[in-house]
Amino acid sequence: MSYSSRLAEFREMISHIEYVKYTLNSLLFWDKMTYMPPEGIEYRSKVMAFTADEEYRMLSGNRFKNYVEYFDGNRHNDVVTDAMVRRIKRNSEYIRKIPEDEYSEYIRLIAVSEQVWSEARKANDYNIFKPYLEQIVGTFRKFAEYWGYEAAPYDALLSYYEPGVTTSMIDSLVAAIKDELTALIKKEAEMDRNLKPAQTIAADGKTQGRLWHLLLEKIGFSFTAGRVDIGEHPTILANSPSDVRIVNSFEENDIRDGIFNVLHSGGKGIYQQSIDKGLLGTFLAEAPSNTMEESVGRLYENIIGRSRGFWDLVYDEAAEIIPELKGDFDEAFRSVNIHKPSLIRLDADEVTFLLHIIIRYEVERGLLDGSLSVDDLQTVWADKYQEYLGIKPNNDREGVLQDIHWASGYFGYFPTYIISNLAAAQYAAAITRDCGDMDDLVRDGRIGEINKWMKDNVYRYGAVYDSNELLERATGESLDPKYYLDYLKSRTT
Is 411 within a domain? Predict the structure, then answer.
């Protein structure tokens, strides 16, 4: 069989695995988050475990492994085929190192844990979720040993989400920004001391949905290749560049939550919709990592979405949908740019957000290495919020139950938010360098030029290059915290 014939057959096999993968990770998961009735969870968890088992078997089959070996380092490969094999090897090795029965049990655990987390959050009772978190932590302790590490078990989890990232690297980034963030918080507290509280505006879900549609259209999200639904926790699920699902959450008494959640997910959606469709059937028609996708979310949520130019652009039309916005533009703009410690990570402003992440990073490391017990988590969580942000949670819903990540199996994921926020500012600086001031581009309705720059330099490549390669190719530099700190200082002066 010729090289081209083998490649065609290999890509057909990959396409079939993608069908299973997207069915599990997108359609089944999306439905579970949005429309599945509560009593459906028992059977759905079995369906999801079966689908995961099928994907596992396809990736672990001898025929598939033989093709991987044939194309690994083959001199006829182009850059896409090399990237495809590299990604397959990495992903399949992570799965194959876990015994099949344990992987299947993990999928069942996560399917049920998400539902239990939701129930615990509604009941405002950590004790309901605690036994499941204990199982999740125990599972990831075993996974870290299966995957291997050089310095610390947590390194195994970090590198799963972003290859090459270590606790040493995260510690270095934290050291570079933590004191600066603390100083900025104190500065903002002094500046805001005599200001009246920012206005909050209430609106029902249907009205907020109309506003989200407007904002998504303004930033360039395509509704012919995507949609928005309501779920417990905001996220994005892509079946292909032509089918991108945004799941959003909101509060009826404050429209800001839904606005910035949807701008964040909308940015990620634009990324997914802009990936070269020719990469389908290669495992490369997706972002190279959650880190890379998250950096784009932060770019649209904060650097674009909280800019003066963006609110100049959308204010009049937004006020037609929500009349309470009419009146004092400066007050409305200030209300989306208050810098003040908050208990809820999703409500956090740009200055305090990464302190929330640093807390979770320290907590996760403690849970994984055993220095912190799930029984002590509430106390440690409250103490760290008091130390870093000067506030304490009053209940579990605004404390340890606010994020779905652990229930969803995202353990070791939070530190990638640090890299993401730094990268977002670095991309914005490069866009300003190449295209002109971003605030002016946004105000003039030229967000399409920002999207084009990102598509040409980042989006279209999918996972052909890893996150660090994309950043260096697009900006000409490796990750540098100075751009993030400079950006924050520009927003707090």
Answer: no
Closest CA to 468 of 410, 395, 419, 406: 419
Contacts with 437 (C-beta within 8 Å, 6 or more apart), sequence order: none
Taking alpha carbons only, the member of 373, 350, 388, 289 closest to residue 486 is: 350
pTM score of the predicted model:
0.88
Please determine, for residue 104, whether its predicted confidence score (pLDDT) is greater than 90: no
Q: Which neighbouring-strand residues pair with 236?
A: 246
124 is a domain residue: yes
Angle, to 10 degrees, between the axis of helix 167-192 and the axis of helix 353-369?
140
CA angle 209/234/356 to nearest 5° reads 130
Count of CB atoms within 10 A of residue 474's CB?
21
Distance CA 293, CA 265 (A): 10
pLDDT of residue 156: 95
Structural contact between residues 151 and 388, judged by C-beta atoms closer than 8 angstroms = no
How many domains is the chain partitioned into structurally?
Answer: 1
Under 8 Å between Cβ of 312 and 446? no
- pLDDT for 42-101, tens place per residue? 899 889 888 988 888 888 888 999 999 999 999 999 999 999 999 988 887 888 899 989
Q: For the chain, what is the mean pLDDT? A: 92
Segments forming the whole domain that contains residue 154: 3-161
Supply the pLDDT for residue 487: 94
pLDDT band at 339 (very low <50, low <70, confident <90, very high): confident
Instruction: Assign residue 349 a region (left: φ > 0; alpha: ψ between -120 and 50; beta: otherwise).
Output: beta
Token duo for residue 462? 């999918």
- Residue 331 lies inside a defined structural domain of this protein: no
CA separation for the pair 381, 360 (Å, rounded): 8
Distances (CA, A) of 306 to 166, 300, 442, 443: 32, 9, 11, 12
Q: Distance (Å, rounded) from C-alpha 427 to C-alpha 469?
A: 13
Q: Does residue 380 belong to any structural domain of this protein?
A: no
Can you tell me the distance from the alpha carbon of 260 to that of 201, in angstroms, rounded to the nearest whole number?
Answer: 14
